[in-house]
Amino acid sequence: MEQFKAAMDDDFNSPGGLAVLFELAKNLRREGNLLTHEGKTATDWQDLQRQWQTLVHLAGILGLEAKPEANLEDTYNFDEAEITRLIQQLNAARKVKD
User: Fold this and answer.
1) Is 31:48 a contact under the CB 8 Å cutoff?
2) Model-level pTM?
């Protein structure tokens, strides 16, 4: 919180504020990977919960929304016909330099 506040107080240094968010997210992802692969985390569960709440709060200050990772299979559920249609759309846009 102090690093974020210092960055934002320094002439509204939003890149510095975002760097704090990315660092928090990186730490939470690392802990998530430990939990997935080793069945435990290196950090106390309450500390992880505080880090997540801090990330959500600070993201909100910048107008961003922090959400838990979605199931990628649900998020990107395209069939082959949809993929082909999107590729055709992309190629048509490239032809007219759009």
Assistant:
1) yes
2) 0.62
